[in-house]
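Incident review: delayed structure delivery

Summary: a single-chain prediction request sat in the queue longer than the usual turnaround. Root cause was a stuck worker, restarted by the on-call engineer. No data loss occurred. The affected request and its eventual output are reproduced below so the record is complete for anyone auditing the incident later.

Affected input:
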Amino acid sequence: MVSVAAFVLQVQAQSGSTQSEFAIQGISTQLVNSPNINSDYQRRASGRPGQWLEIEVTFAWNPRDRAQTVLEAYDVRYFVLLRNSSASPDKKDTLLAGTASHVLLFPGRDKKSVMFVSPQQLLKLFGGRIPSSMQQVVAGVGIEIAVSGQVVAEHTNRGQGAWWRDAAATAGFNRDDGILLDKSRTPFAHLVYDYHEPLKQ
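Output delivered after worker restart:
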């Protein structure tokens, strides 16, 4: 009985210490063109390449337990508020939500996770024309990092607090959980492969 209790206390201590081991360093958003990838499969492109919305998160992981050299699995949850009320039938902005499931995190700073919105979805969300200014595209981003389902870090570039979990704050938005794509589901999957943290396959 004593050994079981000691084990439970050890697990609780490890869980509690994890909360201060992550730090979100920054959030960036930009419009990026579809990549031009050389291959034997060639087709003549017509017009300009499509534009993707890229949302990138930079974070650090510094485990207190120096013996812990790798974290097997963790999630980065994205909440992206688009400024598209003028193109929406009900005149509401859209809150996109999605999760990038990562594996094999090693300690250090400047770790990166990324999500995308496809050119087709952007055209649909903005009424057929994607604004050129990021201020006209994204109103704010909220990020959570979770380990075993527990939120261990959160950050936003829109005001303060976890507004995406506030039912009153989000009641005026349309929510869509199926639009954000992790890197493996885009043509960027094999580009600068080591730049972003690996995804669960």
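Verification: The first strand starts at residue 22 and ends at 33.
Action items: add queue-age alerting; document worker restart procedure.
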